[in-house]
Every structure is written in structure tokens, then in C-alpha cells.
Amino acid sequence: MKNWLITACVAAVLVGCKTSPTGRTQIALYSEDQMAQMGSASFDELKKSTPQESNQKTNKYVQCVAFKIIEQLPQDLRKLEWEVVVFKDDSANAFALPGGKIGVHTGLLTVAKDQHQLAAVLGHEVAHVTARHANERISQGALVQTGLQLGNVALQMGDIKYRSEIMQALGLGTQVGIVLPFSRSHESEADIVGLQYMAKAGFEPSGAIALWQNMSEANGQRQPEFLSTHPAPENRIKQLRAHLTQVQPLSEEAKAKGISASCGS
Ligand SMILES: [Zn+2]
């Protein structure tokens, strides 16, 4: 057995213990810098391989909603190099990567029918980033098992094997063919934290429930891609309803501060 590896992992676990936004203890072995590198390199890869929406109005609208949420993040997260890209893709999907890279598929805009619903998706995705879910996931083994050293992520992105591993670990499974959903605890944490973000940004938190109802209805015709990596809408609607009253004060605070959601749709 590779004893040195076990010792290294134990030591790394000790230094890599963090607390998530909802108070869970989490293992995050990789530095924020390494995660940001992985996110940026994967995002560049996607931008090369996926056409982008050229419609100005659509881009402005999505950017507006995304940046209203980003503005509400704590200073250390707000200062990331946030980038928001609308990809021309009919599947209903969106993602956010470490380092502050957000991708929205045009297909999502037919399911997330107004700014509040879009804010619900983006709040949820941004929460996956701020709660370090990708770091936690790869620390739990997704990349450790491959023996991948993350010293030079950009270089490793040139290696198709590692590129797929990295993108998969970041939750971009559908793009590389292997779906690796976030765990239930990550999903419900992203729902709760995402709801707080949208409320603080002046969006209607009830938009989250409307969104999941739409997802559920769309599921009858053609499954939204988002649902392939996310648990059943019925369960999350229940949890979201339970949290609506808790984020009400945040909504009122936003109103009192004059923060209002107005992104045009
Ligand atoms: Zn999620």
C-alpha cells in the first residue's frame, strides 16, 4: 500500500477542513486558485466548442440578472473575474464554475420564463461555486483517484483524458458525456443559499418555485438537461416553500435599500 499517500491525505484533510455557508464541515483540498484555474480552463474549452448567442438583448438580460446576484456576494467572492456567457444550445441548462464563470444555455430561457425564475437558477448555480461544492467533490476522490496533479491545470487541459476528468468533476458532465450529479446535500444547500442571494438582489424568491414547476411540466415533453443532474422538482419545491418565510426579511431589506430587480423581463 502507498502509505505515504494515506499520510499525505490525512494531513491534507486536516488542513483542508472548511465550513460551508449552511454550517456543514467540508473537505476542500484544493486552493481557491487551483479551482479557479480549473474553472477558467474548462470555460475556455466550452467557449471554443459551443456557439454563443449574438442577440444583444438576450445577452444584456442574462448579464443583468447574473450581475445583480454577484453584487450581493461577500467581497472576496464578488472580486472574482466573473464572466457570463450565453451559449446557443436548445437544452435547458446553466452552470457556474469556480473562478466565477457562468454559462447559460438559450434553451433555459424557455423554461425560466422571467427574471425571477432565471435568478433562481443563477442563484443556485452561483451558490454551488461559493459553497465550494466542486472542490469538495474532487477532494472526495473524483480526481484524487486518477492521480492527477493539479500543478499546471492549463497544461493538463490539453490532455483529453484529464480535460474530461476536470470538466466532469466541475459538474460539466453533460458536455463531456458522463453525468456526475452533485450530491443531495450539495443540491439542497445550493437551493437554500441561492434563495438568499436572489432575495438580497431584489428578486422574488417565489420565482424559484415557479421555476421548478415549469421544469416539472417541461419534463413531460422533453426532459430539461438541468434535471438530469438535479433531483426531482417535487422534493425541492417542498424544501423551497419551507425556506420562503426565512428569506422574507432579506427581501424586505433589499426593498428598504432601494434594490429592485429590473432586468427587462
Ligand atoms: Zn445544482
Give the distance, in angstroms, between the N- and C-terminal Cα atoms.
59 Å
Describe the main β-sheet briefly. Answer: 3 strands, mixed
The counted number of beta strands is 5
Strand arrangement within the widest β-sheet reads 3-5-4
Bound molecules: zinc ion
Which residues sit in consecutive blocks of at least 5 with pLDDT less than 50?
A: none
- The total domain count is 1
What is the N-to-C order of secondary-structure elements (H for helix, E for strand)? HEEHHHEEEHHHHHHHHH
Structure, briefly:
The protein has 265 residues and is mainly alpha-helical.
How would you summarize the topology of this molecule?
Layout: H1 3-15, E1 17-19, E2 25-27, H2 32-49, H3 56-70, H4 75-78, E3 83-87, E4 94-97, E5 101-105, H5 115-130, H6 133-142, H7 153-156, H8 160-169, H9 173-176, H10 184-200, H11 207-221, H12 225-228, H13 233-256
Bound molecules: zinc ion (ZN).
Structural write-up:
There is one protein chain. 58% of the residues lie in helices and 8% in strands. The chain is mainly α. It has one domain (17-256). The chain has a three-stranded mixed sheet with strand order 3-5-4. Strands 1-2 form a two-stranded antiparallel ribbon. Strand 1 and strand 2 form a beta hairpin. The longest helix is centred in the last third of the chain and has 24 residues, at 233-256. The N and C termini lie far apart (59 Å). The model has no long low-confidence stretch (mean pLDDT 83). Zinc ion binds next to helix 5 and helix 10. Zinc ion is lined by residues 124, 128, 182, 187, 190, 230.
